[in-house]
Design a protein that fits this description.
By secondary structure, this protein is of the alpha/beta class. The protein is 40% helix and 11% strand. It has a five-stranded parallel beta sheet with strand order 4-3-5-6-7.
């Protein structure tokens, strides 16, 4: 009881030590202007540190926002393994939809796509890797809640949760809190003691169905081809190989390969 009162006084749903141990506050060596208000300090090694209090407060507020929507009208996008595991647990316990792995273009705009979803609220785990989800949300006028690290931009995001969105333990703790608070908001539990799951549960790996994984990969291939038919056709024309002339076989310099730039 004393522990709960102590946490409430600090404005945290859990002990501060648990946030620190999970690395919720550990950012990157990059700080965007959009995230400057959520930064606590910069360490000597160049890493920016997020304000834990804001992380905690915004997780609780996000749960209240999500609680205003029926579960079937909410979807969470989790493209990476470290986010898809806890996000999957969150979806199972709260009833919201989940989009795991690569976000297929047209998921929220193409009525012909069998995985089509029309959420009224979207939760994004990685704004950089899930840009297509943000773009389609804007087109549909869907509000977005997003986990944002120090290197993220917040364009198209309606509610920011400042957090280390790359850490396995940090994401597990975030979804643990979000799930517990949402179930409280939905009236499914009345006290924290009624929540039977621990943070370790949200870290557990998902057993992958290989057959489904192969089917999903085929769908991605088909969706990409449908989305960019002209581009595919043009690429085929541009990459057409002309036959070599016999007198040009020797002393012909090798073409210089352009290195792909990482975004």
């Amino acid at each position: 009881m004393a522990e709960k009162e102590e946490n409430n006084e600090k404005g945290l749903p859990l002990k501060q030590e648990m946030f620190l141990e999970a690395g919720v506050h550990i950012g990157t060596k990059i700080r965007t202007d959009d995230m400057k208000d959520y930064i606590f300090k910069r360490r000597d090694d160049g890493l920016y540190i997020l304000d834990i209090r804001q992380s905690a407060e915004r997780l609780i507020t996000a749960a209240k926002i999500i609680g205003k929507y029926p579960p079937e009208e909410v979807a969470v996008v989790a493209s990476r393994v470290y986010s898809s595991n806890p996000a999957n647990k969150f979806a199972e316990l709260t009833g919201v939809d989940i989009i795991k792995g690569r976000f297929i273009p047209g998921t929220m705009t193409n009525l012909e796509y069998k995985g089509f979803l029309e959420p009224k609220l979207l939760i994004v785990c990685d704004p950089k890797g899930e840009r297509e989800a943000l773009t389609e949300s804007v087109k549909n006028g869907v509000p977005v809640i997003a986990f944002c690290d120090t290197d993220n931009e917040t364009k198209f995001i309606d509610f920011v949760i400042p957090i280390n969105n790359k850490g396995k333990r940090a994401l597990a703790l975030a979804f643990y809190i979000l799930t517990r608070e949402l179930l409280m908001s939905q009236g499914k539990i009345k006290t924290y003691d009624e929540f039977r799951y621990d943070i370790g549960y949200f870290e557990q790996m998902i057993v992958v169905d290989k057959k489904k994984q192969e089917d999903d990969a085929e769908e991605v291939e088909e969706a990409v081809q449908e989305e960019t038919p002209e581009e595919t056709e043009n690429n085929g024309k541009e990459n057409k190989v002309e036959p070599k002339k016999s007198d040009e076989k020797e002393n012909k310099p090798e073409p210089v390969k352009e290195e792909k730039k990482e975004n």
